Amino acid sequence: MDIFLSINNREQVIRLPVLPKEFKIQSGMKNESFDTINQGEIKLIGMDSLKSISIQSFFPNQDYPFLRDRRYKGWEYIKILEEWKSRRVPIRLVITDSSNELVNMPCTIESFEYGQQDGTGDIYYTLTLNEFKFIKLEQKVV
User: Fold this and answer.
1) How much of the chain is in helix, strand and coil states, percent to nearest 5?
2) Which residues are within 8 A (CB) of 24 and not within 5 positions of it... i.e. 6 or more apart?
3) What is the pLDDT of residues 89-124, one digit of tens each?
4) Which of 40, 80, 110, 123 could be disulfide-bonded to 128 (CB atoms 3.0-4.6 Å)?
């Protein structure tokens, strides 16, 4: 399995060097409940809500044999993600497994928490992403 983050149609791509031990994608619906006079409470099925995912791992500051990518070190990853946040454009999350794409989703960075926990210099982080939907407007001729 590999996890990639990219910006602006692969202008810049990050492959997470250390995979999280787990990830969960939250996917819900915007259902509504109403009270009626004759039937009591009823449920109306709504549209999909935006998906979200939270990833916890670390950006290494040194070389480990289990790294998936060695292009950047610790704080370089932080600098890249902070720059992406400041650009205010969606990023793409791609999670692959044995040449199959499990997830390919445009996202926004909802929160990015990071810091050091020990003397290794590794940067531990929690990255929370929410799905981003591109707006498609139909043009009507009047």
Assistant:
1) 10, 45, 45
2) 53, 54
3) 999 999 998 777 788 999 999 999 999 988 888 999
4) 110
Whether the CB-CB separation of 5 and 71 falls below 8 Å is answered with no
| Region for residue 73 given its phi and psi (left: phi exceeds 0; alpha: psi -120 to 50; beta: otherwise) | beta
Of all helices (H) and strands (E), which one includes residue 72?
A: none
Percent share of the chain, pLDDT over 70: 100
Scanning the structure block, which residue is given the tokens 């929160």? 111
One-letter identity of residue 78: I
Longest dimension (CA), the chain: 68
Q: Cα dist. 35→30, 32, 39, 46 in Å? A: 17, 10, 8, 16
| Token reading at 119 | 């003397």
**Distance from the Cα of residue 3 to its chain's centroid:** 10
For the chain, strand residue ranges (E) read: 2-7, 12-15, 25-26, 32-36, 40-44, 52-59, 91-97, 100-116, 123-131
The one-letter amino acid code at 50 reads L
Sequence-ordered list of residues with C-beta below 8 angstroms from that of 118, at least 6 positions apart, any chain: none
